[in-house]
Amino acid sequence: MSTTDLSQFPTIAFIGGGNMASAIIGGLIRQGLPKDRIQVVEPYEPQRQTLQQQFGIHALPAADSSLAQAQVVVWAVKPQTFAQAAAAVADHSRHALHLSVAAGIRSDSIAQWLGNDQIVRAMPNTPALVGQGMTGLFARPQVSAAQQQLAEQIISTTGQLVWVQQESQLDAVTALSGSGPAYVFYFLEAMQQAGAEMGLPAEQALQLAIGTFSGASALAAQSGEAPAVLRERVTSKGGTTFAALEHMRGADIAAHFIGAMHAAERRAKALGDEFGG
Ligand SMILES: NC(=O)C1=CN([C@@H]2O[C@H](COP(=O)(O)OP(=O)(O)OC[C@H]3O[C@@H](n4cnc5c(N)ncnc54)[C@H](OP(=O)(O)O)[C@@H]3O)[C@@H](O)[C@H]2O)C=CC1
Ligand SMILES: O=C(O)[C@@H]1CCC=N1
Question: What positions does the domain Pyrroline-5-carboxylate reductase dimerisation occupy (predicted)?
Fold first, then answer.
């Protein structure tokens, strides 16, 4: 995570004030962006109250002309509601940089809805909530280097990032790191259940599972060795890991897992087709 000083940063408007918007707002405030530089449009009253309690930000129930002061507009609405939200905002944000986190919605659609080509698409993930996000970014050719840097500064308050060269690669990022935390939680649930079935208290089983994920991730990141090498080092001949991995191979878990990720990528593309312009 970068430690950029954001005290001189421009005003940023968020369209949609739910999970992902909150993760980014939290990152920006932690790094010193004054709250009066953040605007949020959020139609759901309980969520507006949450934003007030969590960040001391007064969110607007609907777009209005005050959005014209924002130099960056972050789109954090569901793909299904993007077109409708864009229609209400377009007239107020002709000259802003637009940063969309919506899954699947292509920048061609966004440019058409907003009448503006200055668009960066981002695919973050929920560990952004604790400053450990992983985000893929794509910039349209019309986006300047300075605007790319601005997008990078915003996203880097939530964790790490990578730029992709082709917009279609964002669908792969969505299937991998965007949806990825859910895969990890799915495995954590299964490991907790197995631990409990084998006689461990459920809480202790979860603690062991979480610690194993974070420890193995740290080892993979710091050792510089391939996951397959690290896996082999755990797998003693005729031992327990071998027994577990043979069971997984028999059930072709890897093929099923890879198939699941392809399903996520297909869904990202379908969201773009279904809800894009
Ligand atoms: N959650 C995740 O792990 C990730 C999500 N994303 C993407 O982020 C985007 C937002 O997801 P997430 O934060 O989880 O969703 P949320 O539902 O938490 O947030 C979206 C918010 O937008 C509000 N909203 C609906 N219509 C409008 C409108 N016209 N103008 C302004 N706000 C509106 C919603 O209100 P209401 O509830 O009343 O509809 C809701 O509070 C999605 O496009 C998703 O694809 C990207 C990466 C990861
Ligand atoms: O499930 C979704 O559609 C969003 C995009 C990536 C994670 N959540």
Answer: 167-270
Q: Which atom of ligand 1 is nearest to the CA of 20?
A: 13
Residue 160 sits in the same domain as residue 37: yes
Ligand 1 atom having least distance to the Cα of 84: 29
Which ligand is the nearest neighbour of the Cα of 15?
Answer: 1
Q: What is the pTM for the complete model shown?
A: 0.95
Closest residue to atom 7 of ligand 2, CA basis: 179
Ligand 1 mean position, distance from CA 48 (Å): 13
H/E stretch holding 209 reads helix 202-223
ipTM (interface predicted TM): 0.97
Same-domain status, 158 and 205: no
Q: Which of 166, 201, 216 is the last residue of a domain?
A: 166
Summarised one tens digit per residue, pLDDT across range 121-137 is 999 999 999 999 999 99
What is the Cα 16 distance to its own chain's centre?
A: 14
Residues 108 and 232 reside in one and the same domain = no
Cβ-based neighbour number of residue 225 at 10 Å: 12
Q: Which atom of ligand 1 is nearest to the CA of 79?
A: 43
Residue 238: pLDDT over 90: yes
Binding-site residues for NADP(+), in ranges, read 15-20, 76-79
Cα torsion angle, 156, 3, 30, 43, sign: negative
Same domain flag for 258 and 140? no
178 Cα–ligand 2 center, Å: 6
Q: What 3-state DSSP class applies to 160?
A: strand
> Using CA atoms, how far apart are residues 157 and 30, in angstroms rounded to an integer?
8
Q: Which of 82, 171, 179, 185 to mutate to test the pocket of ligand 2 (most atoms within 8 A of CB)?
A: 179
Domain-located, residue 5: no
For 258-270, what is the mean pLDDT?
Answer: 98
110: tokens are 């966004």
